[in-house]
Design brief:
It is a single chain. The protein is α/β, with parallel strands linked by helices. Helix content is 54%, strand content 6%. The strands form two sheets. The chain has a five-stranded parallel beta sheet with strand order 2-3-4-1-5, with helices on both faces. A two-stranded antiparallel ribbon has the order 6-7. Helix 5 packs parallel to helix 6 and helix 17 runs parallel beside helix 20.
């Protein structure tokens, strides 16, 4: 509630994975939401980097503020009406100035009560370059000294930002007067242990455990709420031949480790329970079965971690049918059905499947930590590149949504939205939007290059553009196509592909607007081009 020029406007809550930063941020957001003081709660997610959420942050926050304040709504509407390009701009510097600072100056801002804006998991917003402008805006370090700073917002506005203490974030926020830094590491161990004890006692209530067991779990957690969540999930989950007390004993018997390894130790325990190491007398048969289980686990988790946006079970299965190795064509549910404590979306066929916590991704992609569970992401992208191209080979077709006339704009075609949902399944949409990303992320492979050549040599190329236009993703094709010449650099036998990719880029730049307006114009425009 304090005001004045020297009052911190930003609270930066930092700390390692699993300490409970997001839980705190979302709890505060709920508190303020309940009393009407929440301006916006914006969360980044590593699994959703393909959504380019860093390009939408201030436009989303502006819309959220407009939803709660009629004056802000009118000021924002005036700004967009005066400059229509603001509706879709990905320039967060322009968003900050034109959609936040200027509209808020024109509105009364508030009644004086605190307005809180939460930005959660800033470290998952992308790479260093991706978040550079965002950090400079929050820190007030823009190169232009006249550029509006966070202190130019109404006095009652406050930001809560959570992240891991990454170098670039720390460098920008360090000793900035309007940023107050708090580290989860500064929370006294006794306080964290008390809170975790309260959490585990609630989670395991009614399961026959006593205070002494809750105390031991809280001590073992070492301040990591995510460890406690995983431990409780493991204990509550039914395991063949094991009682809940057996599971508790297994959790607390793990050798103490460095705090950074506590989560990894828990992941190893859970995965080893899902895929037990051999203890039977039928050694050869058991080893073969476990080898198969491990290979399937690596294949499925590589697919889940490698996708540019999370996909539901049916879409993951549909793509696997086109993986280059026949042994990868199996039902994903065989692997994910027992991983409910590690993945979200495992109980619903329509829910996207993703890791519940970023540290699980870190564990699986760090070979010294994960050992036999290690996921080779280069292989995952190779498989997804092949699958995406083959999904398009079998799924794309002329006039996929049965458009009747080039004279009719897409916006006026009755039932087009429903036909798009019916005729373009999620795995075909995904493959069409992200195949170039997976190709570019894969080391050059001659067989894959041949698949790419087939794509460009056939009419499938135009069917691809048609689909992108129908789902309003045509503009993404221009930067996507630039990835192909980069991947083929130094391989002169495929130089014709690079040339075609650049021709298609120019085609989209010339005719893209017309094709988005009425997609059948794609084929009319292509004839003279």
């Amino acid at each position: 509630n304090s005001t004045g020029d020297n009052v911190p406007r930003v609270l930066w809550l930092s700390g390692p994975a699993g300490k409970g930063k997001s839980a705190i941020a979302h709890t505060i957001a709920k508190w303020f939401g309940d009393v009407g003081g929440l301006g916006s709660c914006y969360s980044f997610d590593r699994q959703r980097e393909a959504d380019r959420r860093h390009e939408k942050i201030f436009s989303t926050i502006a819309r959220d503020l407009a939803d709660r304040d009629p004056e802000m709504r009118r000021a924002l509407a005036d700004a967009v009406q005066a400059t229509s390009s603001l509706k879709k701009t990905a320039d967060i510097i322009q968003q900050w100035q034109k959609l936040l600072i200027e509209p808020l100056k024109k509105s009364s801002g508030s009644t004086g009560e605190p307005i809180v804006i939460v930005i959660d998991a800033l470290d998952e917003s992308g790479g260093v370059e991706t978040r550079k402008d965002l950090l400079r805006i929050l820190a007030g370090k823009h190169q232009n000294p006249a550029f509006p700073k966070i202190t130019d917002l109404p006095d009652n506005f406050r930001f809560i930002v959570t992240s891991r203490p990454l170098g670039d974030i720390n460098d920008e926020f360090h000793e900035v007067q309007h940023i107050r830094q708090m580290s989860m590491d500064d929370i006294p161990a006794a306080v964290a242990e008390r809170d975790i004890r309260a959490y585990v006692s609630k989670e395991l209530e009614g399961l026959g455990f006593q205070d002494r067991e809750f105390a031991v779990l809280a001590e073992k957690a070492g301040g990591l709420f995510e460890w406690a969540r995983l431990a409780c999930g493991y204990i509550k989950e039914p395991h063949a031949g094991l009682s809940r007390m057996d599971c508790y004993d297994a959790v607390v018997a793990r050798d103490p480790a460095e705090r950074s390894m506590l989560l990894h130790s828990m992941y190893d325990l859970i995965l080893t329970n899902i895929m037990p190491r051999d203890t039977s007398t039928h050694v050869q048969h058991s080893q073969k079965s476990r080898s198969t289980a491990l290979a399937r686990f690596r294949s499925v988790m590589g697919q889940i971690l490698g996708t540019a946006e999370p996909l539901p079970l049916a879409s993951l299965n549909a793509m696997r049918r086109y993986f280059p190795m026949r042994e990868d064509d199996f039902d994903v549910e065989l692997v994910v059905k027992s991983m409910g404590s590690l993945l979200s979306g495992t109980t619903s066929p329509d829910s996207p499947i993703r890791p519940l916590h970023a540290s699980f991704h870190d564990f699986l992609t760090d070979k010294p930590s994960s050992g036999e569970f290690f996921i080779d992401m280069s292989k995952a992208h190779h498989d997804l590149a092949f699958a995406s191209l083959r999904v398009m080979e079998h799924g794309l077709r002329f006039n996929i949504c049965d458009l009747k006339s080039s004279y009719l704009p897409n916006s006026e075609d009755p039932g087009l939205k429903e036909r798009i949902e019916k005729c373009i399944p999620p795995h075909l949409s995904y493959s069409s939007r992200f195949w170039t990303l997976h190709v570019r992320t894969t080391a050059f492979d001659k067989e894959l290059a041949k698949e790419v050549k087939l794509f460009f040599d056939q009419e499938r190329l135009f069917f691809w553009l048609e689909l992108l236009a129908l789902i309003n993703a045509l503009s993404s094709a221009v930067p996507a196509l630039s990835l192909i010449p980069q991947w083929l650099k130094g391989h002169s036998e495929f130089k014709d592909i690079s040339s075609t990719a650049m021709d298609v880029q120019r085609f989209i730049q010339v005719f893209g607007g017309m094709i988005l307006h009425s997609t059948p114009h794609l084929y009319v425009s292509a004839l003279p081009f």
